[in-house]
Amino acid sequence: MNKLFSLFLLLILSSNFCFAQNNLGPKLTAMGMNSAAVKDLWSLEGNPSGITGIKSSTLAINYSKFLFDNELSKQAIAFATPFKNNYIGVSFQRYGITEYNEIKGGIALAKSFGDKLSIALKGNYHQIKISNYGATTGFSIDVGAMYDYNKILTFGVSINNPSIQKFNTKTVEVAIPTVIQVGGTYKASTKVLIATSICKDLDKPIDVGLGLEYKLIELVNLRVGLTAKPFKQYVGFGLNYKKLAIDIAVESDTYLGYIPQMALAYAF
């Protein structure tokens, strides 16, 4: 694909969808991006209080490939570790091509209050760089909380960039997305987890999502999900062997076609 056209398309899509702002990893992606009340390492990019679900220090790397362009991809890395009732997590992600890329790095602090409530605060650094035009940067914070009502129901809420920060540029106003998300999970059985969420980006319509995870056998989890606005379908699976986990997901996007991604995680 012509590089000039690719760059033009990236600029338009990034201003509307802000890909690099949220890389939720294959597990949460396959479940329809319903991260409000799902506990996972990649909750660092959704509801950061979800990292309180990890049992030991965990490191993961993620790679997503956009099939419509040979160069366009996303890469991410995440790490979280517990200490007593506290958790610390760091994440870094990059999206784009040589001529245009976005990066985001952050550090999160989460705390569990008993067996039911957990809260988190995360600080983020953002950068957009365009070849021959330079780079612009910005900072934001995310806040989140989860509450285990019982062993079956969990509720969650998160706000990304509640202070409505923008990138440091004097020529064009570029906003860092402010996203409010509320949702819940329902453990229908020892094998089935259902997740749902309502998400509102201040600049977009309200989105509603539904996701499901099914434990086929002890080592294999199957996942599906969908969102309403924009309407997307997601599918994926996870393989867990001792301390190693491999997760794969495919997202169906109206503009970009099918977007596969894979992550490897290791619990120390």
UniProtKB/TrEMBL annotation:
Protein's UniProt keywords contain Signal: yes
Coiled-coil residue windows: none
Q: Which residues form the signal peptide?
A: 1-20
Record key words, sorted? Signal
Q: Which InterPro entries match?
A: Put_conjugal_transfer
Q: Where does the source fall among the domains of life?
A: Bacteria
Q: Does the keyword Lipid biosynthesis apply?
A: no
Q: What is this protein called?
A: Outer membrane protein beta-barrel domain-containing protein
- Lineage, opening ranks: Bacteria, Pseudomonadati, Bacteroidota, Sphingobacteriia, Sphingobacteriales
